[in-house]
Amino acid sequence: MNPSTLTPSPSSSHIHRSLLLPSPSPFLRTQRRRFRVSLPRCSSDAHHPPSSSPQLPLKDLKGIELLVDKLSPPARLATSAIIVAGAVAAGYGLGSRFGGSRTSALGGAVALGAASGAAAYALNASAPQVAAVNLHNYVAGFDDKTKLKKEDIEAIASKYGVNKQDEAFKAEICDIYSEFVSSVLPPGGEELKGDEVDRIVNFKNSLGIDDPDAAAMHMEIGRKIFRQRLEVGDRDADIEQRRAFQKLIYVSNLVFGEASSFLLPWKRVFKITDSQIEVAVRDNAQRLYASKLKSVGRDIDAGQLVTLKEAQRLCCLSDELAENLFREHARKLVEENISVALGILKSRTRAVPGVSQAVEELDKVLAFNSLLISFKNHPDVVHFACGVGPVSLVGGEYDGDRKMEDLKLLYRAYVTDALSGGRMEDNKLAALNQLKNIFGLGKREAEAISLDVTSKVYRRRLAEAVSDGELEMADSKAAYLQNLCDELHFDPQKASELHEEIYRQKLQQCVADGELNENDVAALLRLRVMLCIPQQTVEAAHSDICGSLFEKIVKDAIASGVDGYDADVKKSVRKAAHGLRLTRETAISIASKAVRTIFINYIKRARAAGSRTESAKELKKMIAFNTLVVTELVEDIKGESADVSTEEPVKEDMTLTEDEEWDSLQTLKKIRPNKELVAKLGKPGQTEITLKDDLPERDRTDLYKTYLLFCITGEVTRVPFGAQITTKKDDSEYVLLNQLGGILGLSGKEIVEVHRSLAEQAFRQQAEVILADGQLTKARVEQLNNLQKQVGLPQEYAQKIIKSITTTKMAAAIETAVTQGRLSMKQIRELKEANVDLDNMVSEKLRETLFKKTVDDIFSSGTGEFDEEEVYEKIPSDLNINKEKARGVVRELAQSRLSNSLIQAVALLRQKNREGVVSSLNDLLACDKAVPSQILSWEVPEELADLYTIYLKSDPTPENLSRLQYLLGINDSTAAALREMGDRLLNITEEEEKFVF
Questions:
Q1: Closest alpha carbon to 602 in 616, 622, 623, 617
Q2: What does residue 679 show for φ and ψ, rounded to 5 degrees?
Q3: How high is the mean pLDDT of the chain?
Q4: Contacts by 944-947, CB closer than 8 A, 24 or more apart
Q5: What does the pLDDT average to over 630-648?
């Protein structure tokens, strides 16, 4: 076979194509000329894909594809049939020609027919590839591939008679989709624009690609990015590729919606977790939403808020994150105004225009905040972006202690501007409240700033009102001041404090020379009337300011001591007391504070002294200081004469003798000096300044008692070998004791109590010696009477002490007798008849012991008697013990004594002690009366019979004998036989025992 016959020549083939296939369209010819060179993207190009759709390189048709491209599907089928038929005919002709036979002709027809069939199959099989190339070139001709229509794709497929699911055509569609997605997604360093999802979805629909195939392309793009991450070496490139991968995940999930969970197996393919996917979606959604927020300014309207809400939905961003982003954006807008305002204030702090410009910036902040608040209260707020509401600086640049001072500076500037007109408008108050909330200032901080600024404005307006006489001419000063406070929204209480401060400043100026003259007093009175200052406030101011000056003078006066309080000091005190216009009570109060400090120092030294005598010496110094210095000081303050007056001691004596019952106390009589002693000692000390409120009552009475003991014992001096001698004792010390009581602030009752306690103590100490054994005799009574008269203790109290001592001694004796068992119930009753309080003398435990011993004596008395009333009622009543507890004691003793009495009776029987046997059996019967018993058992019945016989002969009562018979278990017949035998049985028994012995 000649191969040349099967392969057409170039000229013939060209002529054949020109005859059977249509020529390429002018558009395709033009595109081929423009994109003759293909530029595939390298890895670096993939790393930075362009933002617009790239131009695809054109593909050329080769070989048979050119023929297929020129033929329509019907023409292609007809051509295939013609080729096969012609080939068969040519083969038949050639076989006939060269073979010469029919068989050769048929063989040639079959051979050429098979070859032509293969050529026809190849022609039809290349149709999908030709369609794919034409689709590629068609798409490459679009500058904006989003304009591609689904009908264009279907027209190309139908032109070549192919199905869109054919492998070559489908692969081309996937490649086109993949290239488009890669071009739409921004590089890792760029942010999403927000239109990527819509563009990809529209292009996907235009191509008509199925979701599984499209999803496979997304996964393939992910693999490519993942491989590039492994290939890059530097850290920045790795971060950029990671961000690109996150954007791919985010956009892909939005493209496929709910189906993305099974169409996009990110976790299985790339070994990532759900949290990583959530982070990718969240971060990209936040960045995308944040880019939408950049267009929002301070003039935001409802339409923008609705648009933001829709953008949030499209971004798949949660309400919480959207709210945070909106609040952050609003905060940044406010921070811009705050930064501008701060820059103005800090550069031109003292310039009024600068402050006004800063306030304008703050007004912008307040306007923006009010706008957001109005949107929050809008009826359609559910359709608005999340986070609409008041602005807060929390979490931003100005959130922190370091920036708080800057915010306070701005707040102060706004308050100053609001009060620049001399009044505070209501709208400014509302604005300040909003500004405080925006800045995050505390209530106290904001009030402190407002108070500081408002106080200065109030002072200025008050000064103007005083200087021009407007306040003084006002009919009602209080109404004028209240109106001023209302205009400034100033707290009237703070205004009163400010008035007091102004008055104090004026007062300090007036007393700068050490006294207040008439002009000063008039000026202060005028100021007080205009400012409506209360009297108590004026007095407090004078007491504080004038008092501090007077206090210094008083301290200097008393610091001069007993010898330094001369005429010059007296003059300075009088001048200060009256020149400073202090009231007598205030001056005395100031002097009292200084004097009491000196008194307390004396008291401390007295307490620290090593002996009573040393303590008394310090107290005497204090008394002398009070008489010679403090008394003069009080008189100078009062402006009284220094003449000696004896009325004060008489008044003190009257106070001390309120209780006439104690007039007999010798020490109390001695503190009431006679006229001669008063004349000798001089005038008494003052009693207005005392230590009553500085020391507790116990400490004051202890100090008084210390000096009283010194008065009684005198000055004691220690001599060698531990001995003491009294070297000085004078009744004049009692007068000083009286003055000490006045300094200590002791009342007459308290002084009497000290003397009484000391007298009782002295009487008791000596009476206990006299009554050492607790017995009162005639001689001892006389001794005690003499002692009582000597001490001066009233008879009634002396008798109480004597009774207490004797009772205590008697109680000890009674307790000893009870313990030793020497006290019987008869003696107890005799003591009670003598009104001896046994309940207090003898403890309850000892009384219970005494009861137990008494009952035990009854059970061992041998009489056989048991009186229930006596034991259960009378004895417990006499001993004042619990009767139920007493019954328990009796029951316990009776049960234990019952068996012991039988044993003891048998033992005495064996000892031939008949009287002892009878006594023991009587004790047994007494125990049985207390606690009835059952029949007693014994190992030797004959001994029980002997016990019964002995008791029978003791002439017992029938009741006792019958009860004993029962207890010993002896029946009536045995008892009768025993009565008949009588002593004979006992004699026989004795003889037997002797014989045995």
A1: 622
A2: -65, -35
A3: 76
A4: 944/968, 944/969, 944/970, 945/970, 945/974, 945/978, 945/985, 946/909, 946/985, 946/986, 946/989, 947/905, 947/906, 947/909, 947/917, 947/921
A5: 66
Contact 153, 173 (CB under 8 A): yes
> Residue 922, exposed/middle/buried by CB under 10 A (0-12, 13-18, 19+)?
buried
Handedness of CA 835, 841, 844, 845 (dihedral sign): negative
Instruction: Decide: helix, strand or coil at residue 489.
Output: coil
Contact 229, 271 (CB under 8 A): no
**Residues 6+ positions from 858 with CB-CB distance below 8 Å:** 865, 866, 871, 926
Average pLDDT over residues 882-905: 84
Give per-residue pLDDT as tens, 362-401: 999 999 999 999 988 989 888 898 989 999 888 888 888 8
- How much is the pLDDT for 773? 62
Number of separate helices (H) and strands (E) present in the chain: 50, 2
Cβ(520)–Cβ(466) under 8 Å? Answer: no
Which residue, among 447, 310, 434, has the nearest Cα to 374 in the 3D structure?
A: 434
Taking the CA atoms of residue 403, residue 404, residue 407 and residue 413 in that order, the dihedral angle to the nearest 10 degrees is -120
| Predicted local confidence at residue 444, as pLDDT | 92
Indicate the pLDDT class of residue 11, thresholds 50, 70 and 90. Answer: very low
**In which element (H, E) is residue 35 found?**
none
Alpha-carbon distance of 150 to 154, in angstroms, equals 6
User: What's the CA gap between 788 and 665, in Å, rounded?
Assistant: 10
Q: Residue range 721-734: average pLDDT?
A: 58
Q: What angle is formed at CA 440 by the lines to CA 434 and CA 444, rounded to 5 degrees? A: 90
Query: Between the CA of residue 744 and those of 487, 625, 740, what are the distances in Å?
Result: 57, 14, 6
Distance CA 18, CA 41 (A): 37
Query: Strand pairing of 715-718 and 724-728?
Result: antiparallel
Token pair belonging to 495: 């205004």
Q: Residue 89: which pLDDT band, with cuts at 50, 70 and 90?
A: low
Q: Are 923 and 897 in contact (CB under 8 A)?
A: yes
Q: Is 71's pLDDT higher than 70?
A: no
Residue of 547, 559, 637, 631 lying closest to 597 (CA atoms):
559
Collapsing DSSP states into helix, strand and coil, what is residue 674? coil
Q: Give residue 673's pLDDT.
A: 54
3-state secondary structure of 717: strand
Compute the radius of gyration of the chain from its Cα atoms.
Answer: 65
Strand spans (E) along 84-177: none
721: left (phi over 0), alpha (psi -120 to 50) or beta: left
Token pair belonging to 804? 């207490």
Which amino acid, one-letter code, is at 508? Answer: Q
DSSP state of 686: P
Q: What is the pLDDT of residue 10?
A: 35
Q: List the one residue out of 47, 193, 66 whose CA is nearest residue 133.
A: 66
Q: Could you give the angle at the alpha carbon of 583 between the alpha carbons of 580 and 584, nearest 5°?
A: 115
Tokens encoding 494:
């703070």
Measure the CA dihedral 61/64/69/72, to 10°. Answer: -170
